[in-house]
Amino acid sequence: MRIFNRFARKMGSWFKKDPDRFLEELRGVIHVGANTGQERDLYKHYNLDVIWVEPIPEVYETLKKNLEAYDRQKSFQYLITDKENEKYDFNVADNDGASSSIFDFKYHKDIWPGVGIQRTISLESITLPAFLKKENINIDKYDALIMDTQGSELLVLQGAEEMLGHFRYIKTEVSDFESYEGCCQVDDIQKYLASQGFREHARNLFATRRSGNYYDIWYRKVV
């Protein structure tokens, strides 16, 4: 038991220094909310197979070009939520699409006052399992789900409930305040993932203002 405890403490120390070290345990990643694939070199470093999913047409084109030299990383243009064939008014933000969402801004400007909505486009949604089936993607190659969908992360999870037990890790960006109208918050994600057998592994605070905080949070399957 003492040996195990020393090992656990060592692993915890590694994680604090390099929170993405969990990637070395994985075969592959499904990244929903790709933007332009900023993490592509990180994933390549860990020799991962990667599925990127991005809904905005012009951002997707940039993503596709950025991945041309990465033969183990594939991109797809879809909007992932908890519903299939649902029409959404999707707000495209003027920071290269990074803050784009199915939700309207609420207190988002408290943290990023210079970001605004450039335009709204109509997109049709699909669930994660339906997307994987449609594209004939073998889920056995991917044991982590990473999400950055600007407030709709809980919807992505709920739409994928039947397959969440497949993942060893789930990582999400999430706020502890209503950054977007009706968006999910940290407590919502915590409660839902606890019900699915996941426990918080670590979190990184990356933005804070009077309204609250933004985190990257890593969850690990425990049952």
Sequence stretches where pLDDT stays below 50 over 5 or more residues: 1-15
Distance between the termini: 21 Å
In total, the number of domains comes to 1
Structural class: alpha/beta
Overall radius of gyration: 17 Å
Per the principal axes of the C-alpha atoms, what is the gross shape? globular
| Number of contiguous helices | 7
Question: How much helicity do the residues have?
Answer: 25-40%
Q: Which class in CATH terms?
A: Alpha Beta
Return the average pLDDT rounded to an integer: 91
Task: Report what the structure shows.
With 223 residues, the chain is an alpha/beta fold. It has one domain (23-221): Vaccinia Virus protein VP39 (Rossmann fold, 3-Layer(aba) Sandwich). The protein has seven helices and ten strands. The strands form two sheets. The protein has a seven-stranded mixed β-sheet with strand order 3-2-1-7-8-10-9. A three-stranded mixed β-sheet has the order 4-6-5. The radius of gyration is 17 Å and the shape is globular.
Topology:
Blueprint: H1 2-17, E1 28-32, H2 40-45, E2 49-53, H3 57-66, E3 73-76, E4 79-80, E5 87-93, H4 108-111, E6 117-126, H5 128-134, E7 144-147, H6 153-159, E8 169-175, H7 186-195, E9 198-209, E10 212-221
Parallel strand pairs: 1-2, 1-7, 2-3, 4-6, 7-8
Antiparallel strand pairs: 5-6, 8-10, 9-10
